Fold Fatty-acid--CoA ligase.
Amino acid sequence: METISETVVAAPGRDDALFGESFATLLEYWARRLGDEVAVTYLDHRTGADGRAVTLSWRELDDRVGALATRLAVFAVPGERAAILARQSADYVVAFLGAIRAGLVAVPLFAPDLPGHAGRLAAVLADCAPRVVLTTADGIDGVSGFLASTDTERPAVLAVDTSAPVAAGEQSWPRPEPDGLAYLQYTSGSTRTPAGVMLTHRNALTNARQACDAYAIETSATSTVSWLPLFHDMGLILGIGAPMAAGVASVLMDPLAFLERPSRWLRALSASPGAISAAPNFAYAYSASRVSEDEKSYLELSRVVSLINGSEPVLPATIAKFHDAFAECGLRPEVHRSSYGLAEATVLVSVTEAGKAPRQVTFDRDRLAAGVAIPAGPGVASTTLVSCGLPAGQRIRIADPVTGALVEPGRVGEIQVSGPNIGVGYWGRPAASAAVFGLPPVDPESGAGWLATGDLGVRHDGELFMTGRLKDLVVVDGRNHYPQDIEQTVETHPAVRPHSAAAFAIEHEDGEAAIVVLERAKAFEADITVAAGEIRRAVAVAHGLRPHDVVFLGPGEVPRTSSGKISRALCRKSYVDGPLTARRLG
C-alpha cells in the first residue's frame, strides 16, 4: 500500500556496484572490448570557429589513464585527494579517471583563470587539502602561481598531458570498495563556503546507470554530447560517468564555446547519431534566440534521442520557444526530458517519461504560493509548471519544511529523497551532514536516512513538480512569492534583456523587502527611471507585491554561476554588500 511517507515510488534502480568496480575499472573493460573505437571527442574551438576535433580511442584513453595513475602513485596514497584544475578538454577526462584508478579521491574543479571564481577555488582547496593537483602543461604556471597566492599547503602539481608519460605496465591497481569515496562534488557555494559532497563508487555507478536507463544511453547506438562543465554534477555524469557505465562515446565542448555560438552545440548534436545531451533551462531559450536561420540550414536534429532540461524550474515558454525554433530541423517534442536532480544525489533524481512531451499543468498561483496545488480555473491568476516526472530509481517524499511532518499529495513541501545514489555527507562537516543527509526514518538495511534537498515541490497526479527553492522564496507581508514568477513578469518589459532578471528578498527595517535586479536591453534607449516605475507597477498588479528596489545593470553584469545561470544568491549578496548597486545604471 502506498503511504504518505513515500509519495512517489518507483522500481528500485540497479544497485549493482560490485566489489572492485569503478569508472576506471569499467574503462579497462571497454578498452578491451571496443579497442580503437572513439571514446572521447573534444571539439576545441579556441583554434577556429568550426572547432578542431581531438579524439581518444578507448585503448588510448585507458593507456593514458594507466600512465597517469602510475605517476600519481609516487606522490599520493589511496584515499588522499587529487584536485583537477584544468580547462574543459579530453585531458580533464584523463585526470579524473587517472585519480580514481590510483585509488585517490578525485576533486573535479576548474582552472584558476575562470573569471570571478578565484575566491571559491581557494576556499575549496583549503577545504579538501589535496595532496596533488592535476592540470595541463599550458596551465602549470597559472596553477602554481595561484596556489602560491593561497594559504593552501603546497601540493604536487602534475601535467596530465606530459609529452613523456610513464608506461602503465602491469601495475596492480587498488580495487575500490563500493562504499569507498570516489570523488568530492563541490556545491556552488553561492550562499556559504562551498561544501564537498562525498560520493562513493556505489553512489556514482548507481546514478550513472540510472541515467543510462532513464535516457536510453546504450552501447554503440548513442553518444553523449555536452558543453556543461565537467566540474558540475550533470556535466560530470553526462560527459564521463554515463559513457563509462554504458561504453558509449562522449563529445565534449567548452562552455564558453557554447555561449559564444550556441549553434556549435546543435551542430555537434546533428553530427552525433543517437545523441543525448543536457542543459539548464536558460540555455534552451538562449539557443532559440541566438541561432540564425542560416545556421539552422546545417542542422539535422531528427536523430536526437534525449534533451535533458534540469537544474532549475523548467519554464513552459522556454520549451515552446526552443521547439518552435528548431522543429524545421527535425526536432521532435518528445525528446525533451524534464528532470530534477542535485549534487547531493550524485545528480539525477527524477525524469519525465520517454516518448512523450513533458506534462504541463496550470495551477492557481495564489493557492500554490499558500502551499496547495490546484489547477487554475477561468480568470484566475495562474502559474504553469512542467512535470519533473517520476523517480529514476529512488524514493521521494514531500514534507512540511518547518515541522518535518509528511504532507498529503497536492500540498507543497520540501522534496526529500532516499536511495543508493544519495551521497554520504559533506566533507569535514559532520553536523551539516547529519542535518541534511540523515533524516529519519533510517533504512535498517543500508543505515541511510533521507536527504533534505532544500527544494520545494508537490506531487500532482502521481508526478513530481518542482515549485522553487526554500532559500529563494520571496516572503513579504507573510505571503510567499516564487521568484521565477516575478522574473517572468519583469522580463515582459521592453527595457529588460531576456533571461537577465533576478528577484530576491532582503532584510529591511520594515521586514522583508523584494528586490529586482536586471540587465537593460541593448536597444532600449528610453528613461530607465520611467521603466523602473513601470516594472514596479506591473509586478504590483500581477503579484500584489511592490518591489522595494529595481536595479538596472548593463548587459552581462547580473551575477551568474560558472555555467552561466543567473544566481539569485550571488545577486542578493552583491546587493547587500554594495558592489552591485555601485554598478547601477541611471
Observations:
- The longest strand covers residues 451-460.
